[in-house]
C-alpha cells in the first residue's frame, strides 16, 4: 500500500478535463440545488433522509462484510438494519447509534482492498468525482450488490440510488463552505481534491495500522510542503 503522501496519477491530463467538467456541473447544478435543499428543508429532515440512505446501504454492507470474512462487521450492519428499520421508522431515525452500535459502512472497494487488490492509478470519475482504479471498480459492483434492489416489493424503482442522491445533496449543502474552498478558492483545486481524497481513503482502509493521517482541514496542515510531482 502506498504511503499517505504518494500519488500515482498517469491519467492526469484526462483527469483534469473531467475535473473541469465536474466543477462546471457543480457550479451550475449541484451546488445551487444542494444549497437550496438545505435552506428549504429543515435540518432534522435532512438528517432523517441521510439516515434513511445509510439504512438502505446496510444490506450491501452485510454482503461486503461476508465477502471480507468479517463476521463482526456483518453483525453490526445486520443489527443496525434491524433496529433502524423497525424502531427507527424504516430508517428515518437512527436509534442504533443511540444504543451504542458502531457505524458499519463499507463498500466493494474495501472488499477488493481486503482481497489484496492494489489501489491502482488515481482517476476522477464524471459526476462521482475523485476515485482510484480499485474504488471505481468497487462503485460499479456496489450498484448490483445491494439485495434491496432485487426485492419484489420495493416501494420505488432504484430507491437506493435516489436516497443516495438526496443524501449527497444534504452533505454538499451542509458542508458547502468547505467544498467551495476546495473547488473554487484553492490555487489548484484538482491537486487539492486529489490529495484530500487519497489521504482520507487510505486512512479509512488502513485504520490505526496505516500511515499517520494528516487532517487537510487542520490549521497546521503543511500546504506549503506539498509538492505536485507533475508540476513543471
Description:
Helix 6 crosses helix 7. The protein has about 230 residues and is mainly α. The model is unreliable at about 210-230 (pLDDT under 50). The protein has ten helices and two strands, in the order H-H-H-H-H-H-E-E-H-H-H-H. The protein has helices spanning about 10-40, 45-55, 60-65, 70-85, 95-100, 110-115, 135-145, 160-175, 175-185, 190-205; strands spanning about 120-125, 130. The longest helix has 29 residues, at about 10-40. Strands 1-2 form a two-stranded antiparallel ribbon. It is globular, with a radius of gyration of 19 Å.
Write the layout of secondary structure elements.
Layout (H helix, E strand, L loop, with lengths): L11 H29 L2 H14 L1 H10 L3 H16 L8 H4 L9 H7 L7 E4 L3 E4 H13 L13 H16 L1 H10 L3 H18 L26
Antiparallel strand pairs: 1-2
Helix pairs in contact: 1-8, 2-8, 3-4, 6-7, 9-10
Short description:
The chain is mostly helical. The chain has helices at 12-40, 43-56, 58-67, 71-86, 95-98, 108-114, 133-145, 159-174, 176-185, 189-206, and strands at residues 122-125, 129-132.
Walk across the major sheet and give the strand order: 1-2
DSSP strand count: 2
Which residues form runs of ≥5 with pLDDT under 50? 208-232
SSE ordering: HHHHHHEEHHHH
Helix content: 55-70%
Kindly list the characteristics that best describe this protein:
232 residues, mainly alpha, two-stranded antiparallel sheet, 10 helices, 59% helix, 3% strand, globular, disordered C terminus
